């Protein structure tokens, strides 16, 4: 039962690390293209709604990250406040969002998820996939065209894989908790704390 819970937790951590990579690429591309398009088209007034809705998306994305951190990491993060109702016309709403330093800090934090995602992808492959491959490579390697060599290197490869299987998931869990702390900071920035 304890081993089953431990394996379940490590699988959730690995899944969360891989999701961070995918979401980091999405956030980086979304904000880079959305803000660029919004500013570029602002002289035709088509860009103002684009810029407004791209800037407002930070509440939705941080709320989504908060839920995923709760589901995958069992982290408790304070609720993200609703988007404050803006007064005035579209130009005033865009101006208020663009001039708000907290908005830019949250958007840059979401774009920073790309860097965390690349690190998470590296950590996930190195600490979760590589050890499993090292354990089975000497045994099943000849089926796929890999040959480890003699018995000595085969045993060393298996032992190194077992060592990484033992140590790797705890280090991967720490990386996942680090990303969860980043989400907690973003939620606090949106809440004005």
How is this structure best described in words?
It contains six helices and no strands. The chain has helices spanning 2-40, 47-73, 90-99, 101-111, 113-140, 151-191. It is elongated and about 75 Å long. The model has no long low-confidence stretch (mean pLDDT 86).
Strand percentage, roughly? under 5%
Rg, rounded, reads 22 Å
Given the structure, what is the number of helices? 6
Biggest sheet details:
none
Average of per-residue pLDDT values: 86
What is the distance, rounded to the nearest whole angstrom, between the alpha carbons of the first and last residues? 40 Å
Uncertain stretches: none
Helix content: over 70%
Order of helices and strands: HHHHHH
SS content category: mainly alpha
So what's the overall shape? elongated
Structure summary, number of beta strands? 0
Which terms summarize this structure?
81% helix, mainly alpha, elongated, 193 residues
Chain-wise SSE layout:
Layout: H1 2-40, H2 47-73, H3 90-99, H4 101-111, H5 113-140, H6 151-191
Helix pairs in contact: 1-2, 1-5, 1-6, 2-3, 2-4, 2-6, 4-6, 5-6
Short note summarizing the structure:
The protein is mainly alpha-helical.
């Amino acid at each position: 039962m304890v081993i089953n819970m431990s394996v379940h937790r490590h699988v959730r951590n690995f899944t969360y690390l891989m999701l961070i990579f995918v979401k980091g690429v999405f956030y980086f591309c979304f904000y880079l293209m959305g803000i660029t398009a919004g500013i570029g088209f602002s002289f035709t007034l088509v860009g103002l709604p684009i810029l407004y809705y791209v800037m407002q998306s930070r509440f939705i994305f941080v709320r989504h990250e908060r839920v995923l951190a709760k589901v995958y990491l069992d982290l408790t993060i304070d609720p993200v406040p609703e988007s404050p109702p803006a007064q005035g016309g579209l130009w005033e709403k865009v101006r208020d969002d663009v001039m708000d330093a907290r908005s830019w800090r949250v958007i840059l934090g979401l774009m920073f998820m790309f860097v965390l995602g690349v690190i998470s992808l590296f950590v996930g492959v190195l600490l979760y996939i590589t050890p499993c491959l090292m354990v089975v490579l000497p045994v099943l390697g000849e089926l796929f065209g890999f040959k480890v060599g003699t018995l000595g290197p085969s045993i060393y490869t298996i032992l190194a894989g077992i060592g990484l299987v033992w140590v790797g998931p705890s280090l991967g869990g720490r990386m996942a908790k680090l990303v969860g702390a980043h989400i907690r900071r973003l939620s606090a920035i949106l809440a004005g704390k």
